[in-house]
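note to self: dont lose this again. the chain is below, predicted strucutre after it. 766 aa total, dont forget to put it in the shared folder this time
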Amino acid sequence: MTSTNSTPRKLIETTRTVAKVLSRDFGIRNGYEVVDASPDPASPSSVQEFICNTEASSTLKAFLAQQRGDTAGHVRRTANGALMTLKIGDLVEIQQGTLRTLVLVYKTTRRMLIGFELVWGSTTMLHDVLKSNEIFATYREVSARLATVINRIDPDSVILRFAWDGTRPAFVGLKEWSQHKPPKTREIVYHEGDFVFLQPREKGPLLEIVQVHHIRDQCVDVRYLNRQASQAADFRHDKLLLPAAELVRVDRALFSPLSTCNVSLLPDDASSWTLDSSEFFVTKKDASLLRSECVPCTERQRKARRNVRNQAPLTGMEIMCGAGGLSLGLDLSGSCETKFAIDADIDSIKTFQTHHPNAKVFGCDAGDTLRRAIAGQRSSEGLCLPQRGEVDVISAGPPCQGFSRKNRTAAREAAQEDPRNLLVCTVLGWVEHVQPKYFILENVEGFTASKLGGHEQGMVKLVLKCLLDLGYAATLGYVQSGAFGCPQSRGRFILIASRGNLVLPRLPQPTHHFLGKQATLFSWTDAHGITHTAQRADLTAAMLPAITVHDAINDLPIFDWKDPHQVYAGPDRIELERERRGIKQLEVLSGKATGSQKIEYATEPQNSFQERMRVFIGQAARSVSQHQTAGFGALAVERVVNVALRPGADYDSWSEPDVNKPALLGSFHIERWQQKEFKFERIDGSGYFKVLTTVASVYGSMIHPEQRRIFTVRECARAQGFPDWVEFHASDANLLSAYRQIGNAVPVPLAVALGKSVTAARMRDA
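---
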């Protein structure tokens, strides 16, 4: 790598397998150093792994039994002289028209063969970094005439390590692939007493929930359960249902349940983070309208929930943890207990320790810590570093500034120009060193656009290739945080990996309606120049309602910034009217926080989100901390307080008749052209927060919907889903460090969803 900076760069520490991929597959031979002596190669799949009784398992065992383990570097084909003696486990090539297909034979008849399609690495997204003789199993079954077979492939001339599912996309472990069965009809089986989801009757945003009362020959009698949150109520509960008084008869041919769900009596912890998104409740009074449930189905659901609750949490480690949004969400989901964390930022470490007081937190460079761990040394604080067998889950969100689309200097070749971007190699080094069961990587969407070593999507390919060589299955894609109960728009790139002998967790499916754009669909190009796009689940309706700005913050105390009247004398009409209403007008000083470090909530919680924010170990807080803004100069303050009090208003409103203060733009009008973020935009309370940046700024989309100020630290934390009991340590009086930590964090509700995906995969392994 080359550098335009005369200051020597610190070398990135990594391990030998990662360095080998960097050098061999990407041609990058400097900028990093290897801190371990020798790699621990991934074990090839063995026949003993595949013990389930499926067609795929039997076929795979037969194929592996034919291999002698001395895979050659080129593919050997056998001419068709002895092709009529095919047996289970044979790998053949068939030709149908101009199309040639690899088939792993399951069985043959006199004229036909049946098997599973395999594909060359050239059809996957890693086509340009794989060996030419690597093949992958797929979930497609093949039935063809024996006459179409043109070659038998020597099993020792190919490499088969994983299955490829281009619809996700995912590289799946062969053990998981071998357990799959032929796809069945997607028709949902339901019984009298079951609760099911239906598509909304009037194209609404939320799925309908009904209980099946009677199943007749031609029709089904159901009772609709309406959403309590959609009706006027002092407290809007996103999971509380109100059964309709009357039954509705539906033509059985038109009755198409999407899935079943669970409805039970309302418990005290109905806003718990650990609840599944398909769990709903009714009050004891309303339960009298419901019929008895299907006993076998109910017992099966209870057993599944009991098994989840009884599952011991995995031991977690977060690398480059920042404020710890990712590990906090994983822990709140019940899937993990984070016991180790690494970050070099002192403020972030102190924040992390407020919500993980029992974790070992290493306040130093992740690469230096890796070097010490491999050498068997202690950390710079004198703490024992994690070793193999002590960590089940590694989660990480390496610095994203070099990839972020918000960073206008970031180019597509950024990975080779910005040393921060190769820090992912240190994270992968930790994966190689401790060999966790699961690995979760989070970053901005721009991570996938970065080239590396001349390869398109090079950073993604680097991570995937390293993981495959370490024996990990992996899946990846984009997610929209707002679709998981986060009140802001924040698209993220997520990669989840698991050891090859474990079930690979799926990317979480959206749970909440979101008022903004859906997640971008991940796409890639194969060796033939064909672009492929991941499939998306039907998102026409959601299980749970959207979380708006009002939902997130309207229980917090009200205050305005006091107008300094540097440009226009005052007080003005709006200012006096707000003072008469009892709205506090707080003086703002540059460089000093404005507001209350601790203050009682303005109201009781008004919805499930607010209740979830307040509860800590079963107790609801009565006061909130860090409801404070950063302080700014007089001109910036005067500009903010005079933005019109309507959704979406911005600097243009200074010239409108109701405000009539055009001089606020003054000689600074050139800023509109020099700064893309020159907006002074007031957010719509019935909408969502715009993407939070790491800088507390008056220029962007940071002005409160109804108050004359920007968002406080606590309001920004709510936008990211951080509970109120998390305090952000800031060494500066202006709380800029707190804003930075929040802006850098993974939204907590998204991390909770990731944790539940890991739990679901573990249940399939159980």
